[in-house]
Amino acid sequence: MNAYSASKRQAALPGPSAVLALLKPITWFPPMWAYACGAVSVGAIGPERWPYILGGIVLAGPLICGGSQAINDWFDRHVDAINEPDRVIPSGRMPGRWGLYIAILWTVLSLAVAALLGPWVLVAAIIGLILAWAYSMPPFRLKLNGWWGNGAVGFSYESLPWMTAAAAALGTLPPGPILIVALLYGIGAHGIMTLNDFKAIDGDRIMGVATLPVQLGAKRAALVACLVMAAPQAVVIALLLAWSMPVHAGLVAALLFVQIACMTRFVREPRRLAVWYSAIGVGLYVTGMMITAFALRAITTAPV
Q1: Mean pLDDT, 10 residues at a time, over the chain (304 residues)?
Q2: How far is it, in rounded angstroms, from Cα 116 to Cα 128?
């Protein structure tokens, strides 16, 4: 490629498909679902609340989560050029420094939308965006350690959107049961994030990324991931029983039972079955989240 062609490629605008690939829509679901759970848990699901609910869901998914994906891909571009050269930045479909520009633009856009949705949403958006940049950007690079990085993502994807939706609807901090459950499901999401690390153990080891499978080995990391996913759900079940919600507790327990049955197979061959278990286990996990949200709605909106 001559210098003229190279400069043209550097200055070219990325196409819509490249921008969408950078923002990774498949990753938007967890925070969008958690935000919906937060809205349900305080009873904020009437027709008059739909603009607020939809605005928050868009903020949690396409904006903040999408922006975090752009941030991550920009700071991982050199690693991806070795491990995954077909990704949008190393492949050249996202030319020049457009990956960084989009990450900054999405950060600003997220803050603007959050400000329109109220002070509680703005504060939560600032926290989420700080974690998104710290996760990927030197010198912090929380992702280099599976304990810290997965914890930051679990909190950002599950706990923070849930709390934000509830706080914005109430205009104040949510009651204790909502905060406790949101934190528990965020802790469990640490295990979900570990499931994503089994596919790149060899590359991560070479590049010095200390995921749990790299630190502990595949089998032990699988056991830790399963325990971290299951234990918070068991606590949620116990809390639902204590809060006199036996039907909801029974439904969440049934979902956990199926997860544990699948976990026993997953831990035998974690590298081969991580994607399989993620597809099944995560679906069951988030279904339990919504069941719990409806239980909290009944608790928090009951007449005193």
Answers
A1: 43 86 94 95 78 90 97 90 87 94 98 94 96 95 95 96 92 93 98 92 85 96 97 98 97 98 96 95 97 94 62
A2: 17
Which residues make Cβ contacts (< 8 Å) with residue 122, sequence separation at least 6? 111, 114, 115
Residue with tokens 């752009």: 70
* pLDDT score for 226: 97
Longest dimension (CA), the chain: 75
Q: Two tokens at 82?
A: 């070795």
pTM: 0.91
